[in-house]
Design goal:
By secondary structure, this protein is an alpha+beta fold. The protein contains 13 helices and ten strands. α1 runs parallel beside α4, α2 runs antiparallel to α4 and α5 packs across α11.
């Protein structure tokens, strides 16, 4: 009992001292640890007479309760003080100017493709897709480009297996696949934006991988004037209501007749400048009436059905519209390089 009284006085005294959380933890070990002072009192119970054990045990429990009470109270106060000190040292002056973080934006090439898609969907076209790893049958043969045709060399294709499996050199194979699905019975209005691949040296105006936006319309009584009207709508949407268009004769294997499609130069307004090479016109796409052989290959009778096809280079459209002089900008991840073409700057 004298030991209990002595420990009680020690506890009262030690908790009146200036303690830290570390010292407080040491005290708990000293008094309540496996070999602690209070813990040791329990071992002495067995040496007491039976009539004294109950009273002694009660006093030991009261001593333990006293210690725990003072311990928890002091610990809570010290932790609060420490938290307040840390908050004070780490506080932020919200009146200081914020650090501006660089953020990304949708690719400008994506924006142009979306504009064309939305316009043509409003005109009843479907947006379709197809495989980038393609068969020679769809990439060339069904498009009136048989084996041995010089156009195959001009496109310098990436062949994968035995000149039968390849990376598509154009998005026209999707047109061929869509025609087969129509089985020669239903009209077709489709647009296919997608990646294409050709062996080329990458520089400011060329890339081995580029995006095409290709369209196809097949129906009855379709003429070149329908193509001209469609092209006019697209050009005005992309380059402004005052944009003029014209067709020039050309040659493509899958269209007959074929045309080069030009727009009036939006920089010099047709007067002549370096962009249009002093002609007043800029070529933006190839187009034409679907060749009868292509219609037959797709299951459509050219005596009943007719149609037109057109193809844009998405990079060329974006470069013209936003004054970009290097095609590699579209594929950069350096925000310093692409900052000038963020969506907010070009809307």
């Amino acid at each position: 009992m004298d030991k209990i009284k002595e420990l009680k006085e020690q506890i009262e005294s030690v908790f009146s001292e200036d303690l830290t959380l570390e010292k407080l933890n040491d005290l708990k070990i000293e008094y309540l640890g496996k070999k602690g002072l209070i813990t040791g009192l329990n071992a002495s119970i067995r040496d007491l007479p039976n009539e004294e054990k109950k009273e002694f045990g009660k006093n030991v429990n009261e001593l333990r309760t006293l210690f725990n009470s003072k311990y928890e109270e002091l610990k809570e106060r010290l932790e609060l003080e420490e938290t307040n000190k840390r908050l004070e040292s780490e506080k932020i002056d919200i009146t200081l100017p914020a650090t501006r973080l660089q953020v990304g934006a949708p690719n400008i090439l994506e924006k142009v493709i979306e504009e064309v898609e939305e316009l043509l969907m409003s005109m009843g076209y479907d947006v379709v897709d197809g495989p980038e790893i393609e068969e020679d049958k769809f990439n060339f043969e069904m498009l009136n480009i048989p084996k041995g045709h010089p156009a195959r060399d001009a496109q310098d294709t990436f062949y994968i297996k035995d000149e039968e499996i390849l990376l598509r050199s154009q998005t026209s194979p999707v047109q061929a696949r869509t025609m087969l699905k129509g089985e020669g019975k239903t009209p077709i209005r489709m647009i296919c934006p997608g990646k294409t691949y050709r062996r080329d040296d990458d520089d400011a105006t060329h890339s081995h991988q580029f995006m095409q936006i290709e369209g196809l319309l097949i129906d009855k009584d379709i003429s070149l004037s329908d193509l001209k009207g469609t092209f006019d709508v697209i050009a005005k949407k992309l380059f402004g209501d005052d944009c003029k268009t014209r067709f020039r004769p050309s040659y493509y294997q899958f269209t007959e007749p074929s045309v080069e499609t030009d727009i009036s130069c939006f920089v010099c307004k047709g007067k002549g400048c370096s962009l249009c090479k002093n002609t007043g016109w800029i070529t933006v796409a190839g187009a034409g009436m679907v060749h009868p052989n292509v219609l037959r290959n797709g299951g459509y009778d050219p005596e009943v059905w007719s149609g037109f096809a057109f193809g844009f280079g998405a990079e060329r459209l974006a470069m013209l519209k936003y004054g970009i002089d290097d095609i590699r900008v579209f594929y950069q991840t350096d925000l310093r390089e692409t900052k000038a073409f963020d969506r907010k700057d070009v809307d």
